[in-house]
Amino acid sequence: MKFGKFAFLCLLFLCSFAEAAKPLRVQLWHQMIYGHRVVLSDALREFEKEHPGIVVQETYRETEELRSSYQAAAMGGSGPELVFGPSDQIGPFATMNIIRPLDEVLEPDYFKQFDPLAIPVYRDKHYMIGGAVGNHLMLIYNKKLISKPPQNSDELIAIGKEHTKDLNGDGKIDRYGLVFNYTEPFFFAPFIPAFGEAFMTDDAKPNLNTPALRKTFEFILQLRDKYKIIPKECDYETANALFKQGKAAMLINGDWSWGDYKDAGMDFGIARIPMISETKKWPSPLVGTAGYSLNVNMQTPEHEEAALKLLRYLTSERVQLMFMERVGVLPSNLSLRDNPVVKNNPLLEVSSEIMEVGTPMPVVPEIRGVWDSLRIQYQKLLANSLIPDQAAEGAQKLAEAQITDMNEILQQDASAFVIKAIIVILVLALAWMSRKSFVGFFQGFKGPQRFVYYMMLPAFVGIFAVIIYPFFYNIAISFSNFSLRTFQDWSIVGLQHYVSALSDPKFYSLFLKTIIWTVVNVFFHVTIGVFLAVIINQVMPAKGFWRTLFIIPWAVPQYITALTWRGMFNQEYGPINQFLQQFLHLSPVQWLSQPFTAFTACIITNVWLGFPFMMIVALGGLQSIPHSLYEAAYLDKANAWQRFRHITLPLLMPVMVPAALLGSIWTFNNLNIVWLVSNAGEPGDQTHILVSYVYKAAFNLYRYGYAAAVSVLIFLILAVWSLGSLVGQYRKETK
Asked: How far is Cα 131 from Cα 119, in angstroms, rounded to an integer?
């Protein structure tokens, strides 16, 4: 007994020592492109060498994923100690109180060393420090094709037409004069003030229903449809690839892309986006920074101290010089501007001149509502569903409505007290009815089966943390005013979100579209899956090989598959349209720029992903059917269709019905494919289904309570559908 106690104390001492010796882990989430990530990783390894007790875990996330993941983590009081992102995330994060004012932890003189653009101020406080300044758009041109960049829009069109060519005489354009991600508002925003006035007022209100925006819309349409110097479809990745491959003479992109083009061995130059000939005004790119912010939630004071050390290090002259030398960004530290490496860099010199006509990036939360409304109406314009006047007017109205919804703080109504009373009654009733089970459960840890209970405890904790708690938490916030302005102090307000959702015609149109999405997908999943299973089981040799081959679409991560299919659907360069043109002599389909075809593209992608699961289930069911039944059918001279109809199909039903039910639930809630293939609902938010609509409401417009209410409605719909299907199947089987 004494030896056991001694051994226990020794073990406790060793564990304590190991815990004390364990290095402090600091997390950094960022959205840097590849070239910048390499420099960051090298800088962090140097930091770890200088601080042996600290380990930095860096995690890359795409910009929108970074925002939504950080918000979700903040809901639970966790997240990375440092987050790196664009300056326009300051307003929402600071309003939610999920990033800390740096003025509380850094001395005032510390900020004086930085360019003001690198330390944006929101509500008289600093929430971010950028390691570089700029993050702005410019004209980038291929020096092998263009010796002197255009100075005005007339020259831009003339040079663009000169370099837009069919090089091999096959009737298709092989090189464009200009490419850029013109489907996104950020990339055409510089033109708006060049045609007249800014798209936001000084007091952060949308200013969209203006002649300037109409003329900007008309200008982009002319570049595409009249002068034909830009592709008919062009997202960021397409534009970037065309320029690097020498298939575009000019590109509108940001300073963050220089490192990528240097690594590709390109000889390129930069210039201001050409002056608008009509107004004699320069386009005004948004200028800002991407920087580091401190999480308001810190595990321990030691984590906060380590995060501050890391923040100071990453914004130091030493690290900024590393980024400047290797990827060519303009350092934010003013003392480095006189460094010979900076002064002798021609790109940075021209970039500084471009910034002179720029506009500081707005950091207020309302900018999200403006971007979103612009994006929706503009993409409808590109799809020829609207004219410029209608798009500008619609963008203004939608922006005002979305900003109102974002900033709304709901107040309690009479239903709030009823809901609170019901919750209390349900909790007490559940506790009373489960009292014996709870007592028996906890007594089990002292009984003869305690080892089993301890082994099952992690599973219980996991189920509670991952399923039970989030489920009831979601129900709770569906009755709350949880939103941008009440992120930290929300309260139960009643049934207002449910009333709002059920009285909105958009909910029912999305519900109908979701039903179509689910029915069409599951139909083809099951049909193709059963067909392939029957062929493999009865006809094909090397069954193992074909099973492995056909399951590959299901095995590949959805993210990769969705983005691959999106590239395949490109109107001009996608292999699907190339096949239609070369072999079927059909006109190219505008897969991603028209609502119906974009939705069809999402369905095709999801069918490709879903049929392997049904095939595997069907194969298992086929192998359980007695072969003697088919032998008897042969003797009765039944043909293949009769054997399938009277033997295979009836005996597969008990297997395929649950699989189809499970598939319908998955498909109904499948966010990834719609979001990635349609690029978040393009064109103009017309490819959304209910679950993607919920995601956008929560993480793009910060309407968490409303999104939770719609998600509860989705759960109820699926619960009723599932129970109804299971009851119906049970009745059929028991007849």
From this structure: 10
- Mean pLDDT over residues 498-512, rounded? 95
pLDDT digits (tens, 9 = 90+) for 227-277: 999 999 999 999 999 999 999 999 999 998 988 898 889 999 999 999 999
Place of tokens 């110097």: 229
Q: Which of 325, 336, 314 is nearest to 259 (CA)?
A: 325
Name, in order, each residue with C-beta under 8 angstroms of 315's C-beta and a sequence gap of 6 or more: 114, 129, 130, 131, 291, 292, 332, 333
CB burial of residue 195 (10 Å; 0-12, 13-18, 19+): buried
- Examine the domain organization and report whether 227 and 267 are in the same domain: yes
Query: Hey, how many other C-beta atoms are within 10 angstroms of the C-beta on 530?
Result: 23
The answer to whether the CB of 253 falls within 8 A of the CB of 234 is no
Would the pTM of this model clear 0.85, i.e. be above it? Answer: yes
Rounded distance, CA 471 to CA 468, Å? 5
Query: For residues 220 and 160, is the Cβ–Cβ distance under 8 A?
Result: no
Is residue 432, in this structure, part of any structural domain at all?
A: no
- Quote the domain boundaries for residue 200: 137-284+365-407
Q: Where are the alpha helices (DSSP H) in 248-300?
A: 258-263
Instruction: Verify that 203 and 278 share a domain, yes or no.
Output: yes
Asked if 572 and 232 count as a contact pair (C-beta separation under 8 A), the reply is: yes
> What distance in Å separates the CA atoms of residue 537 and residue 489, rounded to the nearest whole number?
60
pLDDT tens digits along 318-347: 999 999 888 888 999 999 988 888 888 899
